[in-house]
Amino acid sequence: MAERTLRIGVLAIQGDYAAHAAALRDVGAEPVEVRKPEELTGLDGLVIPGGESTTILKFLERDGFFEALKHFAETKPTFGTCAGSILLAKEVTRPAQKSLGVLDVTIERNAYGRQIDSAILTGETKLPGGPIEMVYIRAPRILKTGAGVEVLAERDGFPVLVREEKLLAATFHPEMSADRRIHQLFLEMVKAVR
Hints:
Blueprint: E1 7-11, H1 17-26, E2 30-34, E3 45-48, H2 53-60, H3 65-75, E4 78-81, H4 83-88, E5 89-93, E6 103-108, E7 119-123, E8 132-136, E9 141-145, E10 150-155, E11 158-164, E12 167-170, H5 181-193
Parallel strand pairs: 1-2, 1-3, 3-4, 4-12, 5-6
Antiparallel strand pairs: 6-9, 7-8, 10-11, 11-12
């Protein structure tokens, strides 16, 4: 019997959710755009893209979406990039803001400055295949990680790609690179849980 294609939701409120959907398609998943809490039902995993975390939070305050998303991230594989990593974090600083509080990290918003301070860097990771391209846009900085958090890549001594059980977070934008290893890693995490 053929294995069922994994259905991975992409929170389609803000940010480059179409690029995440394309990356997921490239690694063999079926992307599903999610704009309402009921659309989380039946998904194998979820990607929370970048954007502006406070704007995303305002949207999530409607129709019990925040609570539904928190429950999903507590129980199913979830991958946050840039603003998505902020939303997953247990603690957010500069300024403090509400988050889903599921990933054991402390994260600082806009740590690398404004849009003009954005950068494309290449860095080492614990993933096989050599250095990886990392696209930073008004990126947050992970200041502290809990004991159960595995650091997979760093920038200037700070974690930029982390994993904790079924959660994955990147402070950069892997969807903006042609390299699909991070989305592939997430898919492998989803398969392991399933």
